[in-house]
Specification:
The longest helix has about 45 residues, at about 135-180. By secondary structure, the protein is mainly α. Helix 3 runs parallel beside helix 8 (about 135-180) and helix 6 (about 110-125) packs antiparallel against helix 8. It has 9 helices and no strands. The chain has helices at about 1-5, 25-30, 35-70, 70-80, 80-110, 110-125, 130-135, 135-180, 185-205. The protein is elongated, with a radius of gyration of 24 Å.
Length: about 210
């Protein structure tokens, strides 16, 4: 079963590689050629997991409220739809997590950098002899190896960790806002201060 996922990505494509652009984000985007559907699907799984976790906490709070105001024998009759929704979330979340893990670790984690290294290697074969006379072979090989890993880590961080945090935070804001809009003020204040701190400090890190 795992082998089917591992073979979804052609690690050694026959298509001639295209010289990537010099711009940072354009370079990252070009490196995802042939992998974009799987990266998008993994991002959607990450978003679903973040929404599931936020919804689960809200539903568990509602369950405590129901048990405090409703007799246990009458709970199913009065809150059947909500309980079925909770059951659906609990049943679907392991499946989404399993699909996410397969996409991340079987489809992308190893195949992504190997595909990049293969393309980078073929691009390097087109260089002149004078290029290799001016460069150390070990340094060139190191750049090829490390760049592939760096591109993979950048995309997995953005589509896994960053996407999860954003979706989880937005879902939590929506849920809290349904209780009382005033409760959103601390979250909005924290997010504003955090954004301002990033805008102020991040550009200055390279100058230290």
């Amino acid at each position: 079963m795992f082998r089917r996922f591992e073979r979804l990505v052609d690690t050694y494509p026959d298509t001639p590689p295209v010289t990537p652009p010099r711009a940072f984000f354009a370079f990252l985007w070009q490196c995802t050629a042939g992998l974009r559907p799987y990266i998008l699907l993994m991002t959607l799984c990450t978003a679903a997991i973040g929404a599931f976790e936020a919804m689960l906490f809200a539903m568990l709070g509602q369950l405590v409220d129901w048990l405090s105001s409703t007799k246990p024998a009458e709970l199913w009759a009065t809150e059947r739809d909500q309980l079925l929704l909770l059951l659906g979330v609990l049943a679907a979340s392991p499946l989404v997590v399993a699909l996410f893990a397969l996409l991340k670790y079987q489809v992308l984690f190893a195949n992504f950098p190997m595909r990049l290294r293969w393309n980078f290697h073929r691009l390097m074969l087109g260089q002149s002899m004078s290029f290799y006379q001016d460069e150390f072979a070990g340094r060139v090989a190191t750049k090829v190896m490390q760049t592939a890993l760096a591109v993979r880590d950048a995309w997995l961080t953005a589509t896994d960790i960053l996407a999860f945090i954003v979706i989880y935070f937005v879902t939590m804001l929506v849920i809290v806002g349904t209780f009382n809009l005033t409760m959103l003020l601390p979250f909005v204040g924290w997010l504003t201060l955090y954004t301002l701190a990033l805008v102020y400090f991040v550009p200055r890190l390279g100058k230290v």
